[in-house]
Amino acid sequence: MTGDTKAIKDHAALADAFNADEPRVNWHDETLWFIRQKRDKAAHTIPDWEQLRETASRIKHNVLSNLHDYLLQFESNAKANGIIVHWAADAAEHNQIVHAILQKHKVDRIVKSKSMLTEECHLNDYLAENGIEVIDTDLGERIVQLAKEPPSHIVLPCIHKKKEEIGDLFHEHLGTPAGMADPQVLTEAARQHLRETFLTRRAALTGVNFAIAETGEFVICTNEGNADMGAHLADVHIACMGIEKLIPKREHLGVFLRLLARSATGQPITTYSSHFKKPREGHELHLVLVDNGRSTQLGRENFRNSLKCIRCGACMNTCPVYRRSGGHSYHTAVAGPIGSILAPNLDMKKNADLPFASTLCGSCSNVCPVKIDIHDQLYKWRQVIVKEGYADKKKRLGMKAMTQAFASPTTFQLAGKAGRWFMRNVPFVVNNNLNPWYKQREMPAPPKESFGEWYQKNRKKTDE
Amino acid sequence: MTVSLFIPCYVDQFYPNAAIATLELLEKLGVKVVYPSRQTCCGQPMANSGFEHLTMESNNQFIENFREFDYIVAPSGSCVLHMKDHLHSGKYPNESESVRQKVYELTEFLTDVLKVNSLKARFPHKVGLHQSCHGQRGLKLASMSELVAPAFSKPEQLLSMVEGLELIELTRKDECCGFGGTFCVAEEAVSVKMGKDRVMDHLQHDAEVITGSDMSCLMHMEGILRRKKSNVRVMHIAEILNAQEL
After folding, report:
1. Fewest CB within 10 angstroms: A30, A292, A387, B61, which?
2. Which residues of B touch A450 (CB under 8 A)?
3. Which residues pair with B163 in a beta bridge?
4. Which intervals hold domain 4Fe-4S ferredoxin-type (chain A) (predicted)?
């Protein structure tokens, strides 16, 4: 807890601002829906898709049930391979470990490939405060870094930016011609700029997609090969992973690699699935295992299987709310449905709004390649948040009043005559501009009699 | 067989025609129907807002109202799903279990219990079917576009028995409309945008009527249609299955 008291805008307020530009919302929605459709097409090419999901889910279930043992097995095998293993209890310790390694090597500029964990730990800010420059090498991450924004999506960090806006950024920072928005030209400019960076940095930081307990190796999936470029050109490679990224055996990659890219972008597999097992001669390979709330989540029976997540982003692409509110409305490193069940574990007060940013439509759970019951967990987080006292007072009072009115059938029927009670008490049907229902929707017209009244007149006598 | 009607509170108050159609349709199919008059609300609005602990009283009431019947049928997938998933009672532990098992959404009751394979209904209009999420994904009333599984749809199966009815195709056949209970006011901007987009899909495919098995979604879309001054109507699926238009 930071203890700050200033009001932070919640998801609803941020999404309201995002919706001020409707054509842009349409564009954002359609862009992500296109990816959802690509995912559907890819999934349908595998007749056993549902069985594959079930298998992945069960492997992860086994991992979570035996995490302690797998972690020790992984550590000992990784050490035997020559990897230097570090343990970080939280974000602060993770950042300190990374900083200490860089200090030891007197490195003050590094390249970093994609890692949502380092976003979660706010590593870039921490290193910047300590005089270390970080260049993100994933194209999307580089774009949001130039824009001084966090990623809005875990797989597609700059999906909220139009190519013209990227052209402007590149014009300002990389010297591309003004008004140039051709993706090929912009990508080439980024490539030249990053190539120079890769060649001159002595340390590279990467994330980890899968760590294999049996062999002590880890796998990084990218489309751009930027993790490989960084790791192979630098003297020191630091890989950071959450402790839930383990899988028991190398053969299990056959399940997860098939699911990951298909779920994420609809590709059969990422361009690069790179295995890292030991450092090259004269080089150092560090691996930081980070908890940062994961063991707490593991102890929450209703929420533990959120740790099965392989960070494919499919739940975001399919989420009708995410598509129409944008990733930044979630004000957390991991946005969308999965972020909304992970974030309350890290800071329940700050993220109390997120489990409510959903209609509980259930599409997220259906696309999840490891079958996390995301929408059920959203419902369960709502119960926890209210019980822990993080619901706002107005809502608490409203709910109590509503409950009392419903508790008495007589009150309900008398008060309910032709909708009058509803008009006053159900939040969405007050006919004035202060009411959020009425702002852009007409209220239902109350009929002259309720069904109950109709039934008394037309059927009741024949019943008795 | 005696079927008890479970009529959601807002249907009772705002959409009595949906409830009347449900009753008449079941009667036409030879079922004895009873409406227990002491029903109020299933507690879903509270529970979905995080206040499930306040629904103990409404749960007990629900059990007292419905425990004696063979079947409990409601013209709402959402309320039925809520009962199936969350009806618990310290007072009536065994009865809550049996009540949960005999609650049915109307269309699944027609296809799975009554095994209806023909209907005397005529509705010569272009109709768009809105798949409400809780019915579709929760109660599995229809196959879901996310899953690699055989296609089926209980509501479509019934609509195909209606003479003259032309079911339109949608671009996004099972996207949420954005109603979402209190979400519709708590997240007004996104809720309305979702509703506008859903409505637009139906309008672009020339729907004259939008139907579905949940009146709450339809109420939300109706609100948007009427604000747009559109002539397109919303009707509960029971009203169409019970229709005898010339």
Report:
1. A30
2. 12-13, 16
3. B122
4. 299-329
**Cα(A355)–Cα(A342) distance, integer angstroms:** 10
Contact B13 A463 (CB under 8 A): no
Q: What is the DSSP letter of B168?
A: P
Q: 3-state SS of B179-216?
A: CCCCHHHHCHHHHHHHHHHHHHHHHHCCCCEEEECEHH
CA atoms within 13 Å, Cβ hemisphere of A321: 34
Mutate to test the interface with A, among B39, B187, B222 (most CBs of A within 10 A): B187
Name every residue whose Cβ is closer than 8 Å to that of residue A346 and which is 6 or more positions away in sequence: A120, A292, A293, A332
Main-chain phi, psi angles of B105, to 5 degrees: -80, 150
pLDDT in tens, chain B (246 residues): 899 999 999 999 899 999 999 999 999 999 999 999 889 888 998 899 999 999 999 999 999 999 999 999 999 999 999 999 999 999 999 999 999 999 999 999 999 999 999 999 999 999 999 999 999 999 999 999 999 999 999 999 999 999 999 999 999 999 999 999 989 999 999 999 999 999 999 999 999 999 999 999 999 999 999 999 999 999 999 999 999 987
Q: Taken in order A341, A343, A349, A353, is the CA torsion positive or negative?
A: negative
Nearest Cα neighbor of A28 from A372, A425, A317, A293 is A317
Say which of A320, A361, A446 has its CB closest to residue B14.
A446
Which chain B residue shows the shortest CA-CA distance from A462? B34
Residues of chain A with C-beta less than 8 angstroms from the C-beta of B51: 386, 391, 396, 399, 403
CA distances from A89 to A214, A216, B242 (A): 23, 20, 63
pTM: 0.95
pLDDT digits (tens, 9 = 90+) for A123-174: 999 999 999 999 999 999 999 999 999 999 999 999 999 999 999 999 999 9
pLDDT, tens only, A366-411: 999 999 999 999 999 999 999 999 987 777 777 777 777 777 777 6
Q: What is the spatial distance between Cα B215 and Cα A204, in angstroms, rounded to a whole number?
A: 56
Yes or no: say if A443 and B223 are a contact pair by the CB < 8 Å rule: yes
CA distances from A157 to A150, A152, A188, A234, B88 (A): 8, 5, 19, 25, 43
CB-nearest partner of A320 from B134, B144, B178: B178
Residue B56 at interface with chain A, using a CB cutoff of 8 Å? no
Q: List chain A residues with CB under 8 Å of B192.
A: 439-441
**CB within 8 Å: B222 and A442:** yes
Tokens representing A251 are: 């053969």
Residue B173 in contact with partner chain A when CB distance is under 8 A: no
Tokens of A142: 């580089």
Do A21 and A332 touch, CB atoms closer than 8 A?
A: no
